[in-house]
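Quick one, tokens below. Sequence please?
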């Protein structure tokens, strides 16, 4: 799914948006967070927090990237 369609799901408040983001970006986010915190469980918590923040901020904000 394209990022634009995922953003549209966020604007529709469709919970599938989180699943689509997770499917598309989890490996990348996990790689980054593990390299920062060096703990897999903590990395998962960080990723979940990122998803929650995205859910809280979109809408009303429209991401540029």
């Amino acid at each position: 799914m394209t990022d634009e369609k995922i953003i549209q799901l966020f604007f529709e408040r469709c919970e599938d948006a989180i699943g689509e983001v997770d499917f598309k970006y989890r490996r990348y986010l996990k790689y980054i967070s593990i390299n920062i915190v060096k703990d897999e469980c903590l990395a998962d918590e960080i990723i979940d927090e990122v998803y929650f923040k995205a859910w809280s901020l979109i809408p009303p904000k429209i991401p540029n990237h």
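The mean pLDDT is 93. Helices lie at 3-11, 16-37, 40-57.
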